[in-house]
Design a protein that fits this description.
Blueprint: H1 9-23, H2 28-43, H3 49-68, H4 72-83, E1 92-98, E2 101-107, E3 113-118, H5 131-134, E4 143-147, E5 164-166, E6 186-192, E7 215-219, H6 224-230, E8 236-240, E9 243-244, E10 254-256, E11 266-267, E12 281-285, H7 302-309, E13 313-317, H8 323-338, H9 343-353, E14 362-365
Helix pairs in contact: 1-2, 1-3, 2-3, 3-4, 8-9
């Protein structure tokens, strides 16, 4: 195939991934070399989505190969390199899943690496870090989880007693939009007017006495364009609305806002590609707002899009949430975050204080 002239440059990169995938089990050196060629070539073609898919897939194959060999330190290093993150320190987890196989590597608070590899599992079985591996994380103040797209947004992968969050990719992350304002600036998007043809249940109104100094966008003024303009300099962004999935608008779930003159009402992950944020904390108080696109090797979701745009932390839900309870919950959470508490630690404390509640489905992305 490579000798022909019909392949695009990205497709030629993909042939190295295919070759490496076929060879790595029987000739590890040759397979590894082919996969590394795919990664190197894709790194020089960052704007080509096909090349990036080949890159991410090649990293996954190398990760599974390392896990199968018991090289748990290499699993962690490979995923950090894939995400563009620094070399992982203690209290870090790497998780990979592809069809029937799963690999988990953990660097505990003592700096020791442990891991496991499943070659066969039912693809609909939930994935969590095994108990024997979580014990090495018990002394961690915070656990960062690097996970492949098929696993990102999964709640409950670690015990409730741990403060943990999914780490977003640093590759492609925008720098903060100038210096954040000296004083906190909160933007609240609530009480929107969704299109009637969506037939969405009305949400409880935003309390008039909650965060009175915040910039509030509601009613016909809460259009996607207005929201994108206002959130650029915010230090806190709170969405109290619906999130739905419509593949005609976005591969991931999107937020329902008020329609503009042209009928545009959706705030999508794609729209956030053109925005640079000032390092805010973002609250997506919407059902299933953590739901990403069903891609094997590419992370694409609202939380990931906000991180790429410059957010420092994003709260989102993996399931249905009771809208009447979300406002007091997030007001408590943000009050502690403003006081200097780590978002993942605040969420951990809320899970422990409210066991067996919807709060277990709330996830932090960092």
């Amino acid at each position: 195939m490579r000798q022909g002239e019909k392949l695009t440059h990205a497709e030629r990169i993909y042939t190295h991934e295919i070759e490496g995938r076929l060879l790595v089990d029987s000739d590890r050196a040759a397979g590894t070399a082919a996969l590394e060629r795919a990664i190197a070539a894709a790194d020089a073609a960052r704007n080509d989505p096909v090349a990036q898919e080949a890159r991410d897939s090649a990293y996954a194959i190398l990760g599974f190969d390392a896990a199968r060999q018991g090289q748990h330190d290499r699993v962690l290093s490979l995923m950090a390199a894939q995400f563009g993150l620094p070399a992982p320190g203690p209290c870090t987890v790497a998780m990979l899943a592809e069809y029937e196989r799963v690999a988990v590597a953990v660097r505990g608070s003592d700096g020791q690496d442990r891991g496991t590899y499943w070659r066969r599992r039912k693809t609909d079985d939930p994935v969590a870090v095994p108990a024997d591996l979580t014990r090495g994380l018990a002394a961690c103040a915070h656990v960062g989880v690097m996970a492949q797209p098929t696993l990102q947004g999964t709640p409950g992968i670690l015990p409730d007693a741990l403060a943990w969050g999914y780490l977003g990719e640093a590759r492609g992350r925008r720098a903060a939009a100038g210096k954040p304002p000296g004083e906190p600036r909160a933007v609240i998007v609530a009480d929107v007017n969704p299109p009637s043809d969506l037939q969405l249940d009305p949400l409880s109104p935003w309390p008039s006495n909650a965060m009175p100094s915040a910039t509030r966008l509601s009613g016909d003024g809460a259009t996607p364009a207005r929201v994108l303009s206002e959130i650029r300099t915010a230090t806190e962004i709170h969405f109290h609305t619906h999130a739905i999935v419509d593949s005609a608008l976005s591969d991931a779930s999107h937020l329902v806002l008020s329609p503009d003159a042209n009928g545009n009402y959706a705030l999508t992950a794609e729209a956030l590609r053109h925005v640079a944020l000032a390092n805010p904390v973002v609250v997506l108080a919407a059902c299933h707002s953590a739901k990403g696109a069903r891609m094997q090797h590419k992370s694409w979701s609202l939380p990931q899009a906000f991180l790429s745009a410059g957010a420092r932390a994003v709260f989102a839900s993996a399931s249905n949430i009771p809208d009447r309870e979300t406002v007091p919950f997030y007001l408590r959470v943000l009050d502690r975050v403003r006081s200097g508490a780590a978002p993942a630690s605040v969420l951990r404390d809320e899970r422990l204080a409210n066991p067996s509640s919807w709060i277990a489905s709330v996830i932090i992305f960092e």
